[in-house]
Design a protein that fits this description.
single chain; about 130 residues; alpha+beta; GTP Cyclohydrolase I, domain 2; about 35% helix
Amino acid sequence: MNLHHRSCVRLVNAVFYARHGVHEEERRLGGRYEVDAELGFDSTAAAETDDLSQTIDYQHVYTIICEVMTAGEPSALIETLARRAAMKLMEELTLLEEVTVRVRKHALPLGGLCDYAEAEHRIEKR
């Protein structure tokens, strides 16, 4: 029987304080950003051996996202941040077959009530 195994690891609601935004005041004051990352790959070897080196280490995932959010170039758009994080994860994690990153921003200057804005970026190896 020919089976294709597919697994997913998620980091949900990683929170960062960062200085991004369209307006100068947003960049000066900074704000709270939340990030989700969904990482698709085949974890069969890891599950069979219980070996961390055979899977995606979510501490490494968190570190990569943290670098993008807090140490990288300031961005006007959350779309840019989601894309940067997805690209960096795909570049650094060789087991990764697909990745989806969502970046949320609260306290939006909209002149009305809104919980948050969210941007999503997805990349798949073909």
